[in-house]
Amino acid sequence: MGKKPISEADKRMEELVSLCRRRGFIFQSSLIYGGINSCWDYGPMGVELKNNIKRCWWKTMTQERDDIEGLDASIIMHPRVWEASGHVAGFTDPLVDCKKCRRRFREDEFDGDKCPDCGGALTEARQFNLMFKTFMGPVEEEASIVYLRPETAQGIYVNFQNVLGPSRQKVPFGIAQIGKAFRNEITPGNFVFRMREFEQMEMQYFVRPDTADEWFEVWKEKRMQWYLDLGVNKDKLRFHEHGTDELAHYAAKAYDIEYEFPFGWKELEGIHNRTDFDLQRHQEHSGKDLSYYDQERKERYVPFIVETSAGVDRSLLTFLADAYEVENPGEKNERTVLRLSPKLAPIKAAILPLVNRDGMPEIGHKIADELRPHLKIFYDGGGSVGRRYRRQDEAGTPFGITIDSQTLEDETVTLRERDSMAQERIKIAALKDELLKRTAI
Ligand code: ATP
Questions:
Q1: Is the C or the N end of the chain the one with fewer CB within 10 Å?
Q2: For ligand 1, is residue 358 a contact (CB within 6 Å)?
C-alpha cells in the first residue's frame, strides 16, 4: 500500500513542529525513552512564551479590572467534588475500536460507521471516563481514590464563599485561575492541541440569574478581542455556537472561539453560561449554603455563572501558527519569521555587535547589563550579522540592537524591527524606555 501524500496543511504543521524543536520551544516529553505520545515539554523559548501568554491573560483579568479576584486551588480535590460536578457520571467520550486495524477513535469525531483509517467494522461505542484516577495515601483501595482535576473550574466553585468574604466583592464579580488540568483523551494529537496534561486559564463570573444572558454577550466579545489585541489574524477567528446536541451537561448556552489551525477550524476557548448548576450541585452535596444575599435588591439567590475557559497550550499553538511565516520561499532572500506580538515574544531584543573588535563587544555587554533587569534580552556576539538577525526572526524576537562604528562616535545604535526589517538610529540612553514602551504587557 502506498503512503498517503503529505498535504500542505500537514507540511505546515511539520515545519512548525520542527521549528519548535530546533529553537527550543517545545519538545516531546521523555524523548530519550522514545517519547510519550500526549505529553510535551516547553523548552527555554516555549516557557517564556507560555509565561507571557499567562501574564497577559492574568493582567487582563485581575489587574485591569477591580471585579475579578485570582485563585490558585489545588489539583487534587475531595473526590466528592467530582460526584457533585457530574464528572464521575458524565465526563465521558464514546470510544470505538476498529475490529480490523485495532485503532481507537472517539465516535463523535468522524462521520459514518466504518473505521476512518481502513474502512473496517467498528465495535459498539462504550462510554469512557476521561478523568485520571490515582490513590491518596499508602493504601490502594476504593476508599482512597482521588482524581487529577479535568478542569480548573471546580476549584473556583468550592472557594466561592472563601473568596467572596475577604475580597468584599459584590455580585457581579469573577474569580480567575490558571493551572494544570488532566484528561485521559482517547485520541490526543495535533501537537499541543490535544494533550493529556495541559493548562487552562479559566474565569468564572458570578452574576444575578436574570442578567446572565447580558454578561454572556459581554464576555464573549471581550474574549474574542483579547486574541485580536494580541495580533491574531481576524480572518482566522470565528465563533461557533453549540447546538443542543453539543452542549455539555452543565451548560445552557455555549460559544466556542475557533481558530483555523493548519488542520482545520477547531475550538480555542469556550464561553459558557453554566447557570446555577455548579453552585446548586455543590450546595446539595456539601450541605453548605452557597447562596448570595444581594444587599441592594434585598433578595437571596444562587448566582449564575458565565465561564470563559481557555487552554494555555492551545492559545500558544494559535499564536505560533498564526505568527509563522516563510517569506520568499525557495529564493535567495527566504526568511522564516515568527511575527509574534512583542508582548508575547520570548526574547524582546537581541544585542548584536557588528564586529568582535574595536570595543563593540564591550559596549554590547554594557547595554545588555543595563537592559537585563527590565527585559528578556539575548547577546549574540558571533557570526555574520545577517545570519544572527535570521536566527532571531525565527525565534520571534521583535527587536535587534546593532552596535556599529557610528556607535563609537555618537552613542547611538541601530534598532531593527523584525517584521518590516526597518532600521532606525536611537541613542543608547533612550533604549530602555523605548523597548519597554513597545514590549510591555
Ligand atoms: P474539545 O471539544 O476540543 O475536547 P472541550 O470542549 O472538551 O474541548 P472545554 O472542556 O471547554 O474543552 O475546555 C476548555 C478549553 O481547555 C478548551 O477550549 C481548550 O483550549 C482547553 N483544552 C481542553 N482539553 C484540552 C486538551 N486535551 N489539550 C489541550 N487543551 C485542552
A1: N
A2: no
- Classify 384 as helix, strand or coil: coil
CB of residue 281 inside a 6 A radius of ligand 1? no
Predicted local confidence at residue 1, as pLDDT: 41
Q: Where in the chain is the domain with CATH 3.40.50.800?
A: 347-439
**267 Cβ below 6 A of ligand 1:** yes
pTM beyond 0.90: yes
Q: How far apart are CA 347 and CA 377, in angstroms?
A: 5
Name which residue sits closest to atom 25 of ligand 1, judged by CA.
194
- Please list the ranges in the chain whose pLDDT falls under 50: 1-2
What phi and psi, each to the nearest 5 degrees, are found at residue 190? 55, 50
Element (H, E) at 102: none
For residue 2, the model assigns a pLDDT of 45
Give the Cα separation of 185 and 94 in Å (integer): 11
Could you tell me the distance, in angstroms and rounded to a whole number, from the CA of residue 267 to the centre of ligand 1?
7
Homologous superfamily (CATH) of 347-439 is Anticodon-binding domain (3.40.50.800)
Whose C-alpha lies nearest to ligand 1, atom 8?
267
Query: Is the shortest distance between the CB of 185 and ligand 1 below 6 Å?
Result: yes
Write the residue with the smallest CA distance to atom 14 of ligand 1: 309
User: Helices in 23-136 by DSSP H: which ranges?
Assistant: 44-58, 79-84, 87-90
Cell of 149: 482535576
Grid coordinates representing 237 are: 477567528
Residue type, position 154, single letter: Q
Amino acid at 426: I
Domain with CATH 3.30.930.10 in the chain: 42-77+149-320
Cell of 346: 520570548
Instruction: State in Å: Cα 37 to ligand 1 middle.
Output: 17
Of the residues 198, 201, 219, 224, which should be mutated to test ligand 1's pocket, given the most ligand atoms within 8 Å of the CB? 198
